[in-house]
Amino acid sequence: MNTFFNLTIAILVVSSLTAGCRCGSDTSAPPRNSSSSSSSAEISDNPESKLLARGKLVYSNNCISCHNRDPKLPGSLGPEIFGSTSELLTARILRAEYPAGYTPKRQSHAMPALPHLAADIDALTAYLNKN
Ligand code: HEC
Asked: Distance between CA atoms of 110 and 78, rounded to whole angstroms?
């Protein structure tokens, strides 16, 4: 009886993990316009678009397991985070805290600190605030 119960739980856990995993499905690369070489060179040399592309990559690799692929929408676990300031991102990502006086969108504490992303806060800020 007990074994049957444990097996059922194990199957449920495994199937929910597989169902929830959207890992590795992001094949999107920054669009390239191969036909007009001069304008595409302008785009890729622009430091601002490099920062945005970096931010999008970091977001896809580290955030969309919980937040929505579209940061303007709520995700599977985390809230919508479009428009986050660099101060909020720094506190939340590096220290799992909020800036003084900030009212969190959720009262849960499910998001771990991700301090290895310290060098990418600027890129994430740019991506999460682009029009
Ligand atoms: C393990 C799941 C998970 C991951 C991965 C994750 N988050 Fe979160 N995030 C959450 C949850 C859940 C909340 C709501 C508060 C809480 O429970 O910690 C949250 C809250 C936030 C908030 C605060 C929103 C607000 O205004 O109150 C920001 C900003 C944020 N996340 C940004 C990010 C960024 C950027 C990444 C990727 C670098 C990321 N998170 C990765 C789950 C996650």
From this structure: 8
Taking alpha carbons only, the member of 89, 90, 68 closest to residue 80 is 68
Q: pLDDT (tens digit, 9 = 90+) per residue, 26-70?
A: 444 555 544 444 455 555 678 889 999 999 999 999 999 999 999
- Ligand 1: which of 54, 67, 86 to mutate, most ligand atoms within 8 Å of CB? 67
- Closest residue by Cα to atom 6, ligand 1, is 63
Note the pLDDT tens digit of each residue in 78-102: 999 999 999 999 999 999 999 999 9
Give the ranges where the chain is alpha helix by DSSP (H). Answer: 2-20, 37-45, 47-62, 86-89, 95, 121-128
Enumerate domains of the chain plus CATH numbers.
Answer: 44-131 (2.60.40.420)
